[in-house]
Structures are given as C-alpha cells and as structure tokens.
C-alpha cells in the first residue's frame, strides 16, 4: 500500500513525502443526483514543504484550510462536502485526534 500511496501523491499532486498509516474504513454513500460511492479507503497523514501542483486530469481544484476552520465549515455548509470526505475527516478529528494533532492544530 505504501508504494501505491507514494505513486498517487506523485501522480495527483506532484509531491513526495513520508506517510503515516492511520486507519481504514469502508463506506457506501449517495451524493445527491451526482452518484454514489462504495469503497474501502486507507487513510494516511503526511506533510511536505513541496509546492503542490495538481494533475488537471485528476483534480479540478484544491484549497488549503486550517483544521478548525474545516470543522466550522462542516457545521455551517455541510452540503459543500461529499459524504465520504465528511466521514473520513470527522473520524480523523474525533477518533484519531492524536495522530492528526501531530500534523496540524486541532
């Protein structure tokens, strides 16, 4: 899995860094009329000072946001986020807070 995660970082964001496996989860979720997902996800954390250059064939846009600001956005505008991202982030913030806090203020 570590080889695949490093490859995806290079392919999607054009960065290289060490990653820490945190947990895995599976989900099935509807996303309005857009579709649904049914996946097993492995969640890793890492940090890098490299400039992030998204692959336009994989990612349409990115933005950087502080962890606490993201939690506030979930409360104020939950419709902006996919159900699976909310599940993943809330699990990180609640169940894996110690791991997450070594990468950001939360």
Please, could you describe this protein's structure?
This protein is an alpha+beta fold. The protein has one domain: Nucleoside Triphosphate Pyrophosphohydrolase (Alpha-Beta Complex). It is built from four helices and two strands; from the N terminus they run H-E-E-H-H-H. It has helices at 2-13, 67-76, 83-95, 97-101; strands spanning 20-31, 35-45. Strand 1 (20-31) and strand 2 (35-45) form a beta hairpin. The radius of gyration is 14 Å and the shape is globular.
Indicate the mean pLDDT: 91
**Main sheet overview:** 2 strands, antiparallel
- Look at the helices and sheets and give the structural class: alpha+beta
- Basic shape: globular
Q: Give the spatial strand order of the biggest sheet.
A: 1-2
Total strand count, please? 2
The rounded distance between the terminal residues' Cα atoms is 27 Å
Series of H and E elements = HEEHHH
Give the helix/strand layout.
Blueprint: H1 2-13, E1 20-31, E2 35-45, H2 67-76, H3 83-95, H4 97-101
Quick overview of this protein structure:
The protein is of the alpha+beta class and 106 residues long. Helix content is 38%, strand content 22%.
Q: What brief labels describe this structure?
A:
single chain, 106 residues, alpha+beta, Nucleoside Triphosphate Pyrophosphohydrolase, two-stranded antiparallel sheet, 22% strand
